[in-house]
Amino acid sequence: MNGGEMRVMTEEEKDEQFYRDTESIAHAKLDDRQLAMLEPLGTRRKVRRGELIIKACFTSSGGAIVAAF
């Protein structure tokens, strides 16, 4: 490349860039006050090791919060 040429990103590079750009948002750390505000809107349950929680191709108008203790 020379001058003002821009290299076109591959799909894999685009995916990696998207992950880097959204990691802090997607993996936000909620404090106790924020969790208390959200708790009435959902359900709390225990999951077993290896249990599928969210499927990547699943689309929903809602969201999911997974808390690990």
Topology:
Blueprint: H1 11-26, H2 32-38
Describe, in plain words, how this protein is organized in 3D.
With 69 residues, the chain is mostly helical. It has two helices and no strands. The chain has one domain (7-69). Helix content is 33%, strand content 0%. The protein is elongated.
Average residue-wise pLDDT: 78
The CA-CA distance between the termini, in Å, is 49 Å
Number of strands: 0
Outline, from the CA principal axes?
Answer: elongated
SS field, number of helical segments: 2
Radius of gyration: 18 Å
Number of domains: 1
What is the beta-strand fraction? Answer: under 5%
Question: Poorly predicted ranges (pLDDT <50, ≥5 residues)?
Answer: none
Structural class: mainly alpha
Q: What is the string of SSEs from the N terminus onward?
A: HH
Question: Which range best describes the helical content: under 10%, 10-25%, 25-40%, 40-55%, 55-70% or over 70%?
Answer: 25-40%
Which key phrases capture this entry?
69 residues; 33% helix; single chain; mainly alpha
Q: What would you say about this model in short?
A:
The protein has 69 residues and is mostly helical. The protein is 33% helix and 0% strand. The protein has one domain.
